[in-house]
Design goal:
Oligomer: single chain
Strand order of the largest sheet: 2-1-3-4
CATH class of the largest domain: Alpha Beta
Shape: globular
Number of helices: 15
Structural class: alpha/beta
CATH superfamily of the largest domain: NadA-like
GO cellular component, one term: cytoplasm
Mean pLDDT: 96
Largest sheet: 4 strands, parallel
Keywords: 4Fe-4S, Cytoplasm, Iron, Iron-sulfur, Metal-binding, Pyridine nucleotide biosynthesis, Transferase
EC number: 2.5.1.72
Bound molecules: (~{Z})-2-methylbut-2-enedioic acid, iron/sulfur cluster
Radius of gyration: 19 Å
Subcellular location: Cytoplasm
CATH topology of the largest domain: Rossmann fold
Pfam families: NadA (PF02445)
Amino acid sequence: MEASQFQEEILRLKKERNAVILAHNYQLREIQEIADYVGDSLGLAYQANRTGADWIVFCGVHFMAETAKILNPEKKVLLPDLEAGCSLADSCSAEELAEARRASDRLFVVTYVNSTASVKALSDVICTSSNAVAIVNRIPSEYEILFVPDQNLGEWVRQQTGRKIRLWEGRCYVHVEFTHASLSRMRQLHPGAPIVAHPECDAAVRMLADEICSTEKMVGFCRKSPAESFIIATEAGMLHRLRREIPEKEFLPAPTERCACANCLFMKKITLEKVYRSLQSGEPEVVVPREIAERARIPIERMLDWSTN
Ligand code: CIZ
Ligand code: SF4
């Protein structure tokens, strides 16, 4: 079948199954086109929380589908390819975090949503890059904050909030491919284009950026800015979202140093064919053990509660 036929079939099956398709900003263009909602993990968590659908087909990575399942234990949550993981999430294991918790009883663990359900279950509050600053600002000052697992995001939050924060040593393998040198070359070629970078980028890249924000906030920033073109330093799928929502402006992918691509291999595991097969078969389903889901739900709900989004 061709892409457009898959898309038609997906839309037909989606109605039949009373399914909702949620797609992350880093998904392939053809996936974003058939989604009911395209957004960042915070937006997707809100959508998952309020959907009336029986099935949630999650086009993103495993930890995002887990979050949807934790918020909707009675719904079927499908992830069209269970291999769509996240190396950043895998950089912090529940065992390591449990050990850090045992070492201090004043610890307040802020966990980036890019983490496994068992790590969330050991956390005090979850955050995304959209709300991380607002969340950290709400933590009472007597606590010692540990931010896991993204070191770059944690460091940026530390700068923004002025809070003392201990950082975990995890990084997103895609975002660290942007370098100061690759961005500087791009800036010379397009001197009028603001650099918009994700906080998962290294400090040297963030230093060059005109705006540092989550993917969702990138949409608002580029819409409001008087500039006509922008250099975007995040996963390449975001370019589709920006071009679709703001067609009158130009979006230039920030170059990476080695591979000249910023595609996350985990995000790109989701294809139209796999979405179609999931809707047909009702598989593969994401399951979270009940005891972990119940504990993980508390810091996720605290995030939704504390978030200003
Ligand atoms: O929080 C998300 O969805 C991610 C992974 C990126 C972002 O900043 O939107
Ligand atoms: Fe994980 Fe980075 Fe891929 Fe996002 S872009 S899913 S953080 S590896």
